[in-house]
Amino acid sequence: MDIIDTTTYPLDQPDSASYSALVALCQADLARNGLFNLPGFLRPSALHDTLERVKPVIATQAFTHLRAHNIYFKKTIPGLAPDHPALKLRQTANHTICADQIEDSAITQLYDWPAFASFLADVMQKPRLYPMDDRIAGANVMTYYDGEALNWHFDRSEFTTTLLLQAPSNGGDFEYLRDLRTNDDPNYDGVAALLNGQLETTICPQAAGTLNVFRGVNTAHRVTPVEGDTPRINAVLTYFDAPGRKFTTEEHLDFYGRTTQ
Q1: What is the dihedral of CA 205, 117, 140, 70, to 10 degrees?
Q2: Does an H or E element contain 37, and which?
């Protein structure tokens, strides 16, 4: 796999001591911070080629995802009044392309590479992880132009894997509040306090080429509004611990504006 820096990140040598050390380092960061970053994961040449590959597709084929939503991406929450401040609506705007539009790119090569899924499984201490059986939802590239943002939300998957392809000149920061809720406690009052700007959050600086793995199912997070002429471009790669996962027709339409490849 010549698109990633396998000297620093030896994903192709799972039996080596350096691989074991990398997994241990990622696990420690994940336990401490709820995420880990691998700067320079994508080689500069691969980063350049990837941007050359995806930018024309973004310009001509991207689906503009523009909508007001609450932090749960659900219209209602059982037991929560419609006017509860935890259901406050915020605006999200980005432009999304999917794996089926950029086949044979570095993004799809990485997504489909079994060694990458095995590495993530080792870090997450799972027997195995699988890419989605869905070339629309499994691997995406998202672009944010001036004034656009991905607003506060919780992820549906246990963890999210992203690869920053282009950082904006200003704004577009990854911001989060770790463990705002738990599986047993939805902490609606805490969610409301976050949305009202009453809680301290963390900004995670990233440079282009950085791999980020993040536990987002109970940690609220967002991408702050981009400022300036340089858009933020990042890839999102989604894996599950069971094979065959697909989005529903409604989810395809909501997030990608289409249901077929």
Answers
A1: -70
A2: strand 35-38
Strand locations in 99-181, DSSP E? 130-131, 139-144, 150-153, 160-166, 170-171, 174-177
| Under 8 Å between Cβ of 167 and 207 | yes
Bridge-based pairing of strands 232-237 and 211-214 is: unpaired
What distance in Å separates the CA atoms of residue 139 and residue 134, rounded to the nearest whole number? 9
What are the chain's domains?
17-256 (2.60.120.620)
DSSP alpha helix (H) spans, 76-157: 106-112, 114-123
CA–CA separation, 155 vs 157, rounded Å?
Answer: 6
DSSP structural state of residue 223: E
Model confidence pLDDT, tens digit, residues 80-111: 999 999 999 999 999 999 999 999 999 999 99
pLDDT, tens digit (0-9, with 9 covering 90-100), for 117-152: 999 999 999 999 999 999 999 999 999 999 999 999
Give DSSP secondary structure letters for 231-255: -EEEEEE-EESSTT----HHHHHHH
Q: Residue 74 carries which DSSP code?
A: -
